[in-house]
Amino acid sequence: MFLDEPKIKRRVMNRSEHLRTFYEHLLWKTSAIEVDDYASARQLIATECSNWPQMQFQLACMYAMTDWIEDDIRFDKYRRITFKKRLSDHPVYDFWLTLMESNWDVFFDTVNVVYAELSLLTSETRVPNQKLTLCFQFAIRHGYFQLVEYIWEKIGDNTKEYIG
After folding, report:
1. φ and ψ of 109, to 5 deg
2. Residues 56-111: pLDDT tens digits?
3. 98-147 per-position pLDDT tens digit
4. Which candidate, 44, 46, 144, 38, places its Cα nearest to that of 95?
5. 74-102 residues labelled b (16+ CB within 10 A) or e (exposed)
6. Beta-carbon-side half-sphere exposure of residue 77 (alpha carbons within 13 Å)
7. Residue 41, CA distances (Å) to 35, 57, 58, 125, 142 in order
8. 130 in helix, strand or coil?
9. What is the pLDDT of residues 28-57, one digit of tens each?
C-alpha cells in the first residue's frame, strides 16, 4: 500500500554526514570556524578507519585521494569486487571503480556530428557519458571540491563546454 523510498534516496548523505560520525576527530581550519574536510578525511582514514576498508575507500573516493584509491595492496582485486557489489549504485563509487578497471576513454561516447551547411562534412565528437556526468553533478551538488577539481583537470575543453 505504501511505496518505499528508492534505495538511492535513502543512501545519499550530506557531505558533512560522513565526517559527523567522527565528530571528536574533526580538524578545524585555523583562519575560520570551519571544518577542514579534506584534512579530517585524511586523518580519519589513517587513524579511526584503519581497520575499516570500505569507509577508507568511500572517504578516499569522495575527496579524490588518488594515492589511497590506487593503492593495489590496500584495495586489492577481491576488495574491489566486494566494493563493486556493495557500492556500484552510487555515482561516485561507480566512477572510481570503473576508472580503476579501465582508463578515461570509458567515460566518453563518440558521436557523429553532421554540419547542416555542408551535409557531406561530418566529424566525430567525444561527449561524456552518464557515469562521468552523474559523478560530476553529485560532486558539485554536495560540495566535494577536490573531486570536482580532479575531474575538471582530466577533461578537455570540449567536454567542459558540454558539461556546462
Report:
1. -110, 145
2. 999 999 999 999 999 999 999 999 999 999 999 999 999 999 999 998 888 888 76
3. 999 998 888 888 766 555 555 555 555 778 889 999 999 999 998 899 99
4. 144
5. ebeeeebeebeeebeebbbbbbbbbbeee
6. 0
7. 10, 11, 10, 38, 15
8. helix
9. 667 766 667 888 889 889 998 889 999 999
Strands (E), 21-139: 108-114, 122-128
- One-letter amino acid at 106 equals V
Closest CA to 108 of 40, 160, 66: 160
Helix, strand, coil shares, percent, the chain, to 5: 55, 10, 35
What is residue 38's DSSP assignment?
H
The count of other CB atoms within 10 Å of the CB of residue 40 is 21
Gap between the Cα atoms of 37 and 27, Å rounded: 8
Would you state the pLDDT for residue 1?
A: 44
Q: Are 51 and 69 in contact (CB under 8 A)?
A: no
Round to whole Å and give the CA distance between 132 and 96: 10
Q: Describe the crossing of helices 130-142 and 145-154 by its angle, rounded to 10 degrees.
A: 140
